[in-house]
Amino acid sequence: MAEAIDIRALNERIERESAFVTNLMTGMDQVIVGQKHLVESLLIGLLSDGHILLEGVPGLAKTLAIKTLASLIDSKYSRVQFTPDLLPADILGTMIYSQKDERFVTNKGPIFANFILADEINRAPAKVQSALLEAMQERQVTLGKETFDLPSPFLVMATQNPIEQEGTYPLPEAQVDRFMLKVIIDYPKLEEEKKIIRQNISGEKIQVRPILKAEDIIEARKVVRQVYLDEKIEQYIADIVFATRYPEKYDLKDLKNLIGFGGSPRASINLALAARSYAFIKRRGYVIPEDVRAIAHDVLRHRIGLTYEAEATNVTSDEIVSKILNKVEVP
Predict the structure, then answer these.
(1) What homologous superfamily is domain 32-221 in, according to CATH?
(2) pTM for the structure as a whole
(3) What's phi and psi for 75, nearest 5 deg?
(4) Where is the ChlI/MoxR AAA lid domain positioned along the sequence (predicted)?
(5) Interatomic CA distance for residues 161 and 185, integer angstroms
């Protein structure tokens, strides 16, 4: 009985603490028409302290969504346009010799911000990709012999265009794995499209004002970590990830030849963290299986390696995740 009362008290507390989510959603809706899944994914990344990779054709408001979220939170925002001639120093910064002081002075790059928009991340070569790796994983940057901590919260939101392959560099697996979510964005619906046209030809610019401070996000993250995750849900998450590695053990023999490699332990961790954040966004103090299912595709689609056979038969990682979710027993 004590447990039930605890959950009820926790639920009430989460409902109180998550009130700001509605304000953030409303603020985003003023600027972004539709794209509910994109907005939810950005909030999950923000509350889980994870980075997000957005993939979609040009013109689907990827950049605008990230910029709007950064504007709603009183924090520092940087945008880096990735190009083939970009150098690590263009992102991280460099040491510059000061003649006046007769010593090297640190000139910090655009990475020293709370929100980083890495636009068209797959256009930059491997050297630049590896420069981002340390920042994303360790939340620090090394310039010369000195190491600098990055501000908190620190969130990299990267976009990539799936159409053009010319002049692009596929992201290394190690870096793709650093992204908590890979979100695929689709075209808006017909009614939404008409609304977008009306909004843009009216010439009115919507002013976005900050409604939260960076400290509020750090506090919210502490509350998210208190969302109750039952042992049965933990087992469910572990089963889903294990099914990507050993599908034959879950009566999915037909997937064995389609999967080159499955999700790493990072997949399990991120599934649990994202499920908690999703429950928080839905203003609930506990995680249910539907929360795990809702975010499973975004967490797993970039962590499953496809074999040549899968690519030859046009099987996508999304289809594999759907089959696993349909097969693994729900608690």
Answers:
(1) P-loop containing nucleotide triphosphate hydrolases (3.40.50.300)
(2) 0.86
(3) -150, 175
(4) 259-324
(5) 10
Give domain limits for the chain: 32-221, 227-327
For domain 227-327, which architecture applies? Answer: Orthogonal Bundle (1.10)
Range from 203-207, 235-239, 248-252, 318-322 carrying the lowest mean pLDDT: 203-207
Helices (H), 182-316: 190-201, 214-224, 231-245, 265-281, 289-300, 308-312
Mean pLDDT across 314-326: 90
Give CA angle at 7 (20, 328), nearest 5°: 90
Give the three-class secondary structure for 107. Answer: strand
237 with 274: CB under 8 angstroms? no
Give me the pLDDT at residue 1, please.
Answer: 36
CA distance 270 to 49: 10
Grouping H, G, I as helix, E, B as strand and the rest as coil, residue 58 is coil
Residues 258-308: tens digit of each pLDDT? 888 888 899 999 999 999 999 999 888 889 999 999 999 999 999 998 889
Give yes or no for a contact between 203 and 262, defined as CB atoms under 8 angstroms apart: no
Determine whether 209 is exposed, middle or buried from the number of CB atoms within 10 Å of its CB (0-12, 13-18, 19+): exposed
